[in-house]
Amino acid sequence: xxxxxxxxxxxxxxxxxxxxxxxxxxxxxxxxxxxxxxxxxxxxxxxxxxxxxxxxxxxxxxxxxxxxxxxxxxxxxxxxxxxxxxxxxxxxxxxxxxxxxxxxxxxxxxxxxxxxxxxxxxxxxxxxxxxxxxxxxxxxxxxxxxxxxxxxxxxxxxxxxxxxxxxxxxxxxxxxxxxxxx
Length: 182
Fold this sequence. Notes:
The protein has 182 residues and is of the alpha/beta class. The chain is built from 4 helices and 12 strands; from the N terminus they run ααβαβββββββαββββ.
């Protein structure tokens, strides 16, 4: 995709996500800063912040768990290189601890794909599996939403016993909801 394509999809994705009732009524949203060819999240982060939403962003810990900090605008991000992996943009300010995510009303998750059941395929580091397990242990039930391109919504992804489905996927062309088992 060209830089213009990425910018356009970022704006479209933000517009679709901001229509979600789960985000409209959220006081705190845990999100992430997109990197590489991921669907862009910056426009969405700024729009949420402009609405008065407290936006939490992750900071990768050495054990692949995630700490959290508050997003205060683009100037509050630091580019952090993690070993031989890609550099991530993380909050430069105070760290709130891994449990801060349990205060979120909605959690926006990255992924490589999501299937028709709402099962998300991550990058394999287990960071968000830990987040989802932490939410479950705390009894927190935020809306779980994955942000993807349209082509990344597929028929089936591999699943492990610890995997949990998301409630919705937002793509530049729309929102797809998944029925959750009681």
